[in-house]
Amino acid sequence: MSAEITSSVQLCRIMRPDDANIVGNVHGGTILKMIEEAGYIISTRHCNTQNGDRCLAALVRVEKTEFLSPVFIGEVAHVTAEITFTSKHSLEVHIKVMAENIITGVTMKLMDEVAGIVAARHCKTNIVTASVDAVNFQKKIKKGSVVTVTGRLTFVSNKSMEIEVVVDATSLLEGEKIKYRAVSAYFTYISLDRDNKPLPVPTLKVEGEGEQRRFEEGKARYLQNKAKRVTTKEQQ
């Protein structure tokens, strides 16, 4: 006799560049693989709750699959499987896929990675993120856009470095391929020795009016943040 089962299982995974085509659309095969995995897990779990030898479930048929809207790089795919019907030798599983846009977090991760590369090249030592300041999300990054992340060293003190990181985006889905500034921020890094103690940072060679201006602006931010830390420490 058949019975309705309410148990469910959910798989979540962020979509990576190797999951998608050149414009950022995740391949249907990637989603189908997650669907099959979710169905396999819930079916095998259900079968092994019954009396008898342990077993593994196998996919016999897919009734219908509808792709309602595309999933893009940087989104999290939530695949939920629910058993809707069972018979003596088979069971039916209903699966739905929801996409969650967390591109802000993905962008910040890319920015930190670029800042880390700039800091490591300058110090040639182990480096760690100390702080992130003045994060400006100027324009939304549209789905299907090519993102370019650029970092440059703007200021160094005795034991810290400031790296300016900007994110530019170009939409491949629109007629005009116009690049626009999406995000900008300042990352502060410190250099560490093998015992994870701060090391002196090499000096920054400044050339031209533009670099000098950015250096002075970075110095002002450094002194301002330093004053805030002193004030906070005194109030504790």
Mind telling me the CATH superfamily name of the largest domain? Hotdog Thioesterase
Global morphology: elongated
Structural domain count: 2
Helix content: 25-40%
Cα radius of gyration in angstroms: 26 Å
Question: How do the helices and strands follow one another from N- to C-terminus?
Answer: EHEEHEEEEH
* Number of helices in the DSSP assignment: 3
**Quick one: CATH class of the largest domain?**
Alpha Beta
The assembly state of the depicted protein chains is single chain
CATH topology of the largest domain: Thiol Ester Dehydrase, Chain A
Q: CA-to-CA gap between the ends?
A: 69 Å
Mean pLDDT: 88
Structural class: alpha+beta
Strand order of the largest sheet: 4-7-6-5
Just name the CATH architecture of the largest domain.
Roll
The number of strands is 7
Topology:
Layout: E1 8-14, H1 28-47, E2 75-86, E3 91-101, H2 103-123, E4 126-137, E5 145-156, E6 161-171, E7 179-192, H3 208-235
Antiparallel strand pairs: 1-2, 2-3, 4-7, 5-6, 6-7
Please, could you describe this protein's structure?
- The chain has about 240 residues and is of the alpha+beta class.
- The protein folds into two domains: about 90 residues, Thiol Ester Dehydrase, Chain A (Roll); about 100 residues, Thiol Ester Dehydrase, Chain A (Roll).
- It is built from three helices and seven strands; from the N terminus they run βαββαββββα.
- The strands form two sheets. Strands 4-7-6-5 form a four-stranded antiparallel β-sheet.
